[in-house]
Design brief:
The chain is of the alpha/beta class. It has one domain: Vaccinia Virus protein VP39 (Rossmann fold, 3-Layer(aba) Sandwich). The chain contains seven helices and nine strands. α6 links the parallel β4 and β5. α2 packs antiparallel against α3. The longest helix is centred in the first third of the chain and has 13 residues. The radius of gyration is 17 Å and the shape is globular. Bound molecules: S-adenosyl-L-homocysteine (SAH). The site of S-adenosyl-L-homocysteine has 24 residues, from β2, α5 and β4. Pfam families: PCMT.
Length: 225
């Protein structure tokens, strides 16, 4: 109890306490997340710093929350599941992320892989995400303001690519930028019908696996100031 009160003093709220975070981890386990490294990183990443202060008391609920500009911070379960799928075959060196948003998924992944190259089309979101990662001393991330449909060809190939907005089709540029054996985790579809896919680059083509139904904001076109 003393510790929780202490947390309240520092943050002005009680919902960021260790016990609240532990409850989230327990829930992710129940929902089927098994990767211990992923669970551990989610436990120690302060999600309340990635949302508006007015929403901080809900930061450890397993739900997406608004972050402004019609965008949302991904649901913790989805962050965990997508990270787990990326890492299923072992550690990754170079990962590209499309859709930085709040930077929460970026922050989680940055503690699980060597380097991240993160692309976002909305400048103000990117700037805020950058600040948060610096504040948390997560320095293995490079940001690009641009269009995720194009990826980041200059730095390709990537061992992993994660897309946190739903695409109508799998962008060809992202397939092209996958290294041999590279893994792409991407929601595909439109409106209500969206499926999370895992695509792996094999010697002669791509293996595709449908993971399940999901709900994401759309992957839009072009950068936005
Ligand atoms: N992983 C983020 C989710 C943000 S929502 C988080 O947890 O906060 C999806 C993000 O994708 C939004 O920030 C949106 O601006 C961005 N996005 C949408 N279309 C894009 C595009 N074509 N290129 C880059 N980013 C895009």
């Amino acid at each position: 109890m003393a510790r929780e009160q202490d947390g309240m003093m520092h943050r002005g709220i009680g919902m960021t306490s260790e016990r609240t975070r532990e409850r989230l981890i327990q829930r992710l386990r129940e929902e089927g997340i098994v990767n211990q490294n992923v669970l551990e990183v989610i436990r120690r990443t302060p999600r309340h710093l990635f949302v508006d202060e007015a929403l901080a008391h809900r930061a450890y609920e397993d739900t997406a929350l608004p972050i402004g500009n019609n965008q949302t911070i991904s649901q913790p379960y989805m962050v965990a599941r997508m990270s787990e799928l990326l890492l299923e075959d072992g550690p990754l060196d170079k990962v590209m992320e499309i859709g930085t948003g709040s930077g929460y998924q970026t922050a989680v992944l940055s503690q699980l892989v060597e380097r991240i190259f993160s692309v976002e089309r909305i400048k103000v979101l990117q700037d805020r995400a950058k600040e948060r990662l610096l504040e948390l001393n997560l320095r293995n991330v490079v940001f690009r303001w641009g269009d995720g449909w194009e990826g980041w060809p200059a730095l390709a190939p990537y061992n992993g690519i994660i897309v946190t907005a739903v695409a109508t089709d799998v962008p060809q540029a992202l397939l092209d930028q996958l290294a041999p054996g590279g893994r792409l985790v991407i929601p595909v579809g439109s409106g209500e019908v969206q499926q999370l896919m895992l695509i792996v680059r094999e010697e002669h083509g791509f293996a595709r696996r449908v993971i399940g139904n999901v709900r994401f904001v759309p992957l839009l076109n072009g950068p936005l100031a």
